[in-house]
């Protein structure tokens, strides 16, 4: 990865005693923020942790020295330094005088999107989630460069606080050929998002920090016009969006539905349940757990439905090692706390089974027996390599066999299993349950095996 940070341009605008200390600091390249609060010692925050950088107390003169050398603060109390990506945020007292500064180091890191390059090429809309300071803005800046320069798409960045492309009328080269639209007031971001689509014919729109209901609605409107979206929002995981009403529209919206008695009985749920209202504005979600560790939801629609029902969901974990190799694993999400702690009903095992076809078993006795001994699976019309890959990813103790008599379970494609009456008869004689899946996909087979191993 290549890093372009212009750190000296930030340090040149700080008081001399802070600049001198940081220039000689051994972890200078790991600097994230510098905090200057009136009457307190200056503090530097590194990726390794915070530390005081001087015995001297910050005075009014020190704060004034810095504020006079940067651009003017906008209505969101943010400012910047010309032609750089650094951001300075201020804290004001009751008389609106600045008595504190947070100077965040902005870096253009080329190569950060290598973990999800294939996802960008899919052309689907991507939502990036993560807590503050985890690097969401750095990631979408690199996404803008890759999409515009390497994939030659028409990209528009809606830059509310000039954090993506820098505090200047001339955008930072870190965004490549992407164009940038500045937002005069933070509460007008949703209007600029719509204006970008109507006036400039983009193929991709990039938005940082979607935080209000109007912005979520604008994102849905853009998605319905066929434009690819890449956006960020605060939150550790998809569950945070379910619990956040203003942003729920990003994932399709959540509504209460009252079922009839017959339907509730058929589903095995309560009569009043939560369901997704519409299709999500974003098809893919990326949770930034750490700088080089991401959780990817390849289908937001399915993930939200499973979370609301309280079922398990299989997500993809991608990690970049020190040797710059990408490791991809599959992980089963734990049962959703929402389904346990609220009125959202947890779907019972009997209802989960309806996701697959149980060809010849009518009761639960055989399912119970499966959990009491080691599983030996006979595959019919499913690739052995596919099954081996699923078993390896789920890290479960299962043996594959090519002899039906040794099997404790038979799985295969539903349409082929239903046509083979001889196999059904033999399985019935040997008391072997048969399960069929609709498609030969890793996702469906993994869900079935995970259910069997519960």
UniProtKB/TrEMBL annotation:
- The protein depicted here goes by the name AAA+ ATPase domain-containing protein
Alphabetical UniProt keywords: ATP-binding, Chloroplast, Nucleotide-binding, Plastid
InterPro entries in the cross-refs: AAA+_ATPase, P-loop_NTPase, PTPase_dom, Spore_III_AA_AAA+_ATPase
User: Which part of the chain is the AAA+ ATPase domain?
Assistant: 122-261
Q: Which GO terms describe its molecular function?
A: ATP binding
Q: Which Pfam families match?
A: PTPase, Spore_III_AA
| SUPFAM superfamilies xrefs | P-loop containing nucleoside triphosphate hydrolases
Record-annotated membrane-spanning stretches: none
């Amino acid at each position: 990865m290549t890093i372009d940070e212009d750190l000296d341009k930030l340090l040149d605008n700080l008081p001399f005693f802070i600049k001198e200390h940081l220039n000689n600091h051994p972890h200078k390249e790991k600097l994230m923020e510098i905090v200057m609060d009136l009457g307190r010692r200056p503090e530097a925050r590194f990726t390794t942790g915070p530390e005081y950088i001087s015995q001297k107390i910050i005075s009014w003169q020190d704060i004034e020295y810095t504020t006079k050398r940067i651009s003017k603060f906008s209505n969101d109390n943010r400012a910047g330094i010309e032609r750089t990506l650094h951001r300075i945020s201020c804290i004001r007292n009751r008389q609106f005088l600045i008595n504190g500064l947070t100077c965040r180091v902005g870096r253009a890191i080329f190569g950060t999107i290598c973990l999800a390059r294939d996802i960008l090429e899919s052309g689907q809309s991507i939502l990036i989630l993560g807590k503050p300071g985890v690097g969401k803005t750095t990631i979408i800046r690199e996404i803008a460069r890759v999409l515009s320069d390497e994939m030659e798409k028409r990209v528009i960045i809606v830059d509310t606080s000039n954090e993506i492309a820098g505090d200047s009328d001339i955008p930072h080269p870190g965004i490549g050929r992407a164009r940038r639209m500045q937002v005069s007031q933070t509460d007008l971001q949703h209007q600029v998002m719509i204006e970008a689509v109507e006036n400039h014919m983009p193929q991709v729109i990039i938005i940082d920090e979607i935080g209000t209901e109007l912005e979520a609605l604008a994102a849905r409107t853009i998605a319905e016009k066929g434009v690819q979206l890449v956006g960020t929002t605060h939150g550790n995981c998809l569950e945070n969006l379910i619990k956040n009403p203003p942003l729920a529209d990003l994932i399709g919206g959540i509504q209460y539905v009252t079922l009839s008695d017959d339907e509730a009985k058929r589903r095995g749920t309560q009569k009043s349940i939560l369901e997704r209202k519409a299709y999500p504005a974003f098809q893919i979600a990326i949770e930034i757990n750490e700088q080089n560790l991401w959780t990817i939801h390849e289908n937001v629609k399915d993930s939200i439905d499973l979370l609301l029902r309280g079922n398990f969901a299989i997500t993809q974990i991608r990690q970049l090692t020190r040797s710059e190799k990408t490791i991809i694993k599959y992980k089963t999400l734990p049962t959703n706390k929402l389904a346990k702690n609220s009125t959202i009903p947890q779907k019972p095992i009997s209802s989960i089974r309806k996701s697959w076809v149980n060809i010849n078993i009518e009761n639960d006795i055989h399912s119970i027996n499966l959990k009491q001994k080691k599983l030996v699976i006979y595959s019919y019309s499913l690739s052995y390599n596919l099954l081996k890959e699923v078993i390896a990813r789920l890290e479960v103790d299962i043996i594959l066999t090519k002899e039906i008599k040794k099997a404790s379970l038979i799985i295969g494609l539903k349409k082929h299993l239903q046509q083979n009456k001889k196999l059904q008869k033999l399985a019935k004689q040997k008391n072997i349950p048969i399960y069929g899946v609709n498609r030969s996909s890793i996702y469906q087979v993994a869900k079935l095996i995970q259910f069997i191993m519960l």
